[in-house]
Structure formats: C-alpha cells, structure tokens
C-alpha cells in the first residue's frame, strides 16, 4: 500500500511513520509513505495557500486551486489514489472505516488547516473523515491516527505474536464489545490480586470470565455499544438490567 499526505506541515509525519510498528512495516515494504508540501503547488512569491472567506467571518480558508493542482499532479502517476479529506465536518472514523481503507492500493490524505477549506476543493474527495467530536488545529494528526489504524491491519504489520482480529471493535470475534481486562505478573500488586480463574488453567472458565468481563466493561464505559453488540439472549438480559 502507498499512503501519501498533502499538507502545509509535511515534516510532522516522519517521526510517526518511522517509529515502532509503523516504522517496521515501512522498512519491511508493507507500506510506503510520502508527505507532500501543498506550497509546492503555489505560484506566488509568498507561496500563499489561504485567503479570506467570501461573506466575511473569522479566520482564513484554504484556497481551492493549490489543492486541486496538487491532487491532480500527485494522482497523475501510478494507480489512482482513494482521496480522503480530513475535516471535523467529516464522517466519524471507525474500525469499519479502517478496514475499508486497508483494502485500497493507494491512499491520498488531504489535511486542512486554518478555519477550513474552500468547499469546491472537496470535489476531489472520495470521502471526508473526522476522528471525533472535538476540534484540532489541522488534519495532520487525524491523518496519522488513520494511518496507524490502517497500517496495523495490513498483512504482516503486527508480526506473528500479535493479531488484529480479536480486539475491541473488530468486526470479528469480540462481537462489538470492549476487550476484556488483562493481567500479567505479579499475581498480586499493591493489594490487588489477579482474578483466581485466570490462574486456574481451566480454559473454558477463563473464556467465560473474559466474555462476562467484556460485557461488564462495555456496559460501564461504552453503554452506547451494547445495542449493536452480538450478544446471546441471556447475555443481553444481563447487560440490560
Ligand atoms: Cl479530521 N480535523 C480537524 N481540524 N479537527 C478534527 C478532525 C479533523 N477530526 C476531529 N477533529
């Protein structure tokens, strides 16, 4: 997979794309990453990418022409990219969206700054994504969040010891619940013991404990997920009392 970003701060990306699992996946050729500077597609001395909004109002907007030229020129070589614009007005990013993006051969992420982007630039977008209901100073961090969530789904990115199939929000095994609590040594710490069942060696009991724990935690921290979680009738009866 090739992931490219278009931004006025292309230098923000490199540390994230060369560290830890992303860095290793990139070294291994599982994905390639390039960050472009939007100012390279301006034609004036000041390399201007923003201007005042028609109709007045606060702040500056990103101009459509440099974004248009940049996306056209980046897309003109190689396979046509799936183009994502990052904006707080986009569709909320989810694990399902990450799984969908992970199937693309080439992604181009366009990162807004200032008070927004001239609406006409969105004509180039295949989709608009927001990473949550809060406002960031720009789309770069959102693009990095999405890159992380996508790359870890690519075959080989997590290595053999890890897997992305049995975890919170995966459309697979966990059935749309938060993941169960996990513990490692020591068996007792600061007066808190690891639940006995986890030390019992009884795998059926461990599985049952984990299932119940996942439901409890979801009820407590993310009750909004319960209605769409895959639960048996008796599990649903317990969860809804
Ligand atoms: Cl994608 N951009 C900005 N500026 N703020 C956000 C966001 C994106 N997602 C949540 N907040």
From TrEMBL:
Q: Which UniProt keyword terms apply here?
A: Cytoplasm, Methyltransferase, S-adenosyl-L-methionine, Transferase, tRNA processing
Annotated EC: 2.1.1.228
Domain (tRNA methyltransferase TRMD/TRM10-type) ranges: 1-227
- Which GO cellular component terms are attached? cytosol
Location in the cell reads: Cytoplasm
User: Which protein are we looking at?
Assistant: tRNA (guanine-N(1)-)-methyltransferase
Give the top-rank taxon of the lineage listed in the UniProt record for this protein: Bacteria
Tell me the gene name: trmD
